[in-house]
Amino acid sequence: MLAVESSFRGHGIATALVQQAIDAMTKRNADEIVLETEESNTPAMRLYERLGFLRSKKLHRYYLNGNSAYRLVLPLRSVDFDIAQDYLIGEVS
Prior knowledge:
Blueprint: H1 13-27, E1 32-38, H2 42-50, E2 54-59, E3 69-75, H3 81-84
Antiparallel strand pairs: 1-3, 2-3
């Protein structure tokens, strides 16, 4: 879980933290990074998509409170995007 105290938001802290995690996993030769975020968490969705994550699946009623989520994937190696399109869903509006 990643969270930034509301009084510190808007200063690039979340971006820096996620980028550090991406860099660490890249150095460890990970093929991809997969995470889930709540469907209604628009700021998180924008952050992850801005960093290159792609929506791969909607997870209906994923959380105990009944809220849905999206699974997001960041490929770290070459991807055949013609094949990948079969596994991806639309963009954040």
